[in-house]
Amino acid sequence: MNAGDVCDCVWKAGKRHGACRYTFFNGEVYACTFVDGVCKEFDARQAAVRAAPDAASVQARAEGYASAAAKAEAQAAAKAEAIAAAAAEAAERAKFSHVTDILQRLGLASFLPAFKKEDVSNDMLATMTVDELKGIGLTLGNAKKVRLEIDALASPALAAGGGGGGGGGGIAAVTTATSSLCLSAPRTLASSNFLAAHEAAPDTVKKQHELFAAIDGFLAGMCRHFGAPAAAAEDLFLRLQGESFENPQELLSQIQVAATRIWTSTQKLQGKGVDDALNVEFCSLINRALRDDIAAVMPHLVVIVRAINALCIVRRDSKSLKFPPNAVSHRGGALPRQHHAFFAVGCKYRVPMYLATSFSEDKAYEFWYRAFATGQVPVHWVVHFDARGEHNLRYRCKNVNLVEKTVKGVEDEQEFLFVPYSVFTVMSITVPAKITGSNPVVVHIEAAIDNADEDEELPLAPWH
Fold first, then answer.
1. Which range of residues forms the domain containing residue 227?
2. Contact call for residues 314 and 398 (beta carbons, < 8 A)
3. Pairing relation of β-strands 378-384 and 441-447?
4. Are residues 125 and 179 in contact, defined by beta-carbon separation less than 8 angstroms?
5. Could you tell me which residues are beta bridge partners of residue 31?
6. Considering the entire predicted model, what is its pTM?
7. Which residues of the chain, if any, have pLDDT below 70?
8. 418 and 361, same structural domain?
9. Is 180 domain-assigned?
10. Residues forming a β-bridge with 3
């Protein structure tokens, strides 16, 4: 028998005897009958098959191979080489994935070859100083931008606003990606600097000097933390203070209202020495500090948070409290593809910042379309509430309220503001085959009735 032949017959005394079904190596099936191991017809057919090359061998030789076996061996080697090359390429992409993401997000993709040439991997990037970044070829300004982005990614629970919420004068918030650069254990509310400072802070803010001292200290601390000039903090503080003086009665008897109005301010940190990443509104600075869980500013920040939360947290039944139409509110923004998997159906999580939504879907649309227009993946968040909460405090969400006292110019946003570390559960996520500004990713989430009833160890959203 040749290698590859298959014989299906009866054997007698070690010899084929009787009906036989023989399959040759080339696939041909031959039926015959043996008598004591002899079948002249089979012998003749076998000789003919052995003499005639099979079709595979003919084709192999036509392609330059010595035989069909040689061709199969060469193809197997080529396949193994292709698999190894693909694995190496994937490893290369993974090694520089966050480097690539950061440079592309900052418009510095042209520097990626230089980073790869210097073998600046994700882990190495996390430790680089501004001077080291300059050594790769970045200007001082760009090196600072990259360093700011690395600092923002230092927290494993960085959640970002992509719009549709984030506060005043722009429901939009600063967009920052979550970090896989950080190797520490994931942060939770229980382990956060925020919770420790919040529990140590006074329950209420009663006087204007307490609020203004906290704002002043917070802005100064943020500028120190990010290397911005102290003069920029002083300038923004004076502008926010000036806006507040337009409503003097609030400063005398309604500090919580004054704090919430300041949250909606469109005033930005600005001036010489302020990087683009920090050239944002006051509300975005607050959310940046909350997302990054910056310990140095937390004692001042929690005073501001407690003042704002006094109006956002519902502990009483009141006919004056607004309830979202159809028991839903909306948020628009961006949701990078790498974070889609987090928002799996049934996932319960906290958002470590203020989360601004709107009664108006049209307002949310402005933000998700803006994300699409700038090359990001647009998302429409639909936040669901227990409909019974409209008339029954027991079922009303206790961690959100409509911001009605705003600075001039943002009255139409209908901002429904959730307090930091609010809890949500994913109901569904729809990712269209073709994502456009009119056909965004849609995520339906359910707001928890009371954050106080939820686990402090819940995971923190990597993006919002």
1. 193-312
2. yes
3. parallel
4. no
5. 21
6. 0.62
7. 1-5, 25-27, 53-56, 58, 60, 68-69, 79, 83-84, 86-87, 90, 152-185, 314-320, 407-413
8. yes
9. no
10. none
